[in-house]
Specification:
By secondary structure, this protein is mostly beta strands. The chain contains one helix and 18 strands. The longest helix is centred in the first third of the chain and has 6 residues.
């Protein structure tokens, strides 16, 4: 009786539905028949997941439903294999059955049933929308948080249609480059000038206005120099010569405040034509500024362009 019954059992209807609450369990509905006639009574059913329609490896544990009552061939069971077996890979459901109380081993019903898309809703490959809060811990570490301290290891770019940003920025600004700075002696700016005549005698010193004059002279004319209205810092002195001083010769350019040299100084020697200084000097409000040009050896005659940052 057992062999005749189960060898002719077929699954006529397969329905897989998610349980409420989006858990990992789902409902399996089927119809068991013998020689085309629906069966009734208690049956022991066992359910296994496999990764192949035949053979293969079992995925997860076996779910047993003993004494399941089948009425007119119809039955429904709640199955829960957990989320690990349902990882998006193809799966097939194998069912074995026997009448409750039958001492014979259960018979495997073939073919295995493919698991369709419904159970895989527990692991959506993509979501069109999401309802509910998302905790910070659920976000990727590449997502910047508004109210958390962030460290960026890659270059950071700011983009604004108006070119303006607001807020508080902290730090010393070291490493900033390509900053467009404009202005005049009354405020921050990049001061530039031209000196048409440079000293060519050994040990001679010429003086020029910090904003540049037509010719430098041997007398420091403080009355023609810049007089900042506010305290500031001078830095970034750079100089370019029309021709190099020549072998064994040099020219040293130094920013002076109230007739005294500052650390803002650079020297051009030999075949070089340019030099710059990274040093800075504090300039009190109302100070008189000038630039000294000191010759060593007998530099070639020429002119110079210079610039420095006043901020």
């Amino acid at each position: 009786m057992h062999e005749r019954l189960l060898s002719s059992c077929v699954i006529l209807l397969l329905s897989l539905c998610l349980s409420a609450g989006q858990t990992t369990s789902f409902t399996y509905q089927g119809r068991l028949a013998e020689n085309g006639a629906a069966v009734s009574g208690p049956y022991d059913l066992a359910f296994k997941l496999f990764d192949q329609p035949g053979g293969g490896a079992q995925q997860g544990s076996t779910v047993s439903r003993d004494g399941l009552w089948i009425s007119n061939g119809l039955f429904a069971v709640e199955l829960d294999f957990g989320s690990a077996p349902l990882d998006g890979s193809p799966r097939w459901l194998e069912i074995s059955a026997r009448k409750t109380g039958d001492p014979a081993p259960p018979t495997v019903l073939l073919p295995r049933q493919p698991i369709t898309a419904a159970p895989y809703a527990v692991k959506a490959l993509a979501a069109a929308s999401y309802l509910g809060p998302v905790a910070d811990t659920q976000l990727s570490p590449n997502v910047a948080l508004r109210n958390a301290s962030q460290t960026f290891t890659a270059p950071v770019q700011f983009a604004s249609a108006s070119g303006a940003f607001s807020g508080t920025f902290a730090g010393n600004g070291s490493g900033l480059t390509n900053l467009p700075v404009t202005g005049s002696a009354g405020g921050a700016g990049f001061i530039t000038g031209r000196i048409n005549q440079l000293p060519t005698s050994a040990g001679s010193v010429f003086f020029a206005s910090a904003s540049g004059i037509t010719d430098a002279t041997a007398t420091e004319a403080l009355t023609t120099t810049l007089s900042p209205a506010v305290s500031a810092v001078a830095t970034g002195l750079s100089v370019r010569l029309s021709q190099p001083p020549g072998a064994g010769n040099s020219l040293t350019f130094t920013l002076r405040v109230n007739g005294s040299d500052t650390a803002v100084s650079c020297t051009i020697a030999g075949s070089a034509r340019t030099a710059e200084s990274a040093a800075a000097a504090f300039i009190p409000a109302g100070s008189e500024l000038s630039i000294s040009i000191r010759a060593a050896g007998v530099p070639n005659s020429g002119s110079a362009l210079f610039g420095w940052l006043f901020q």
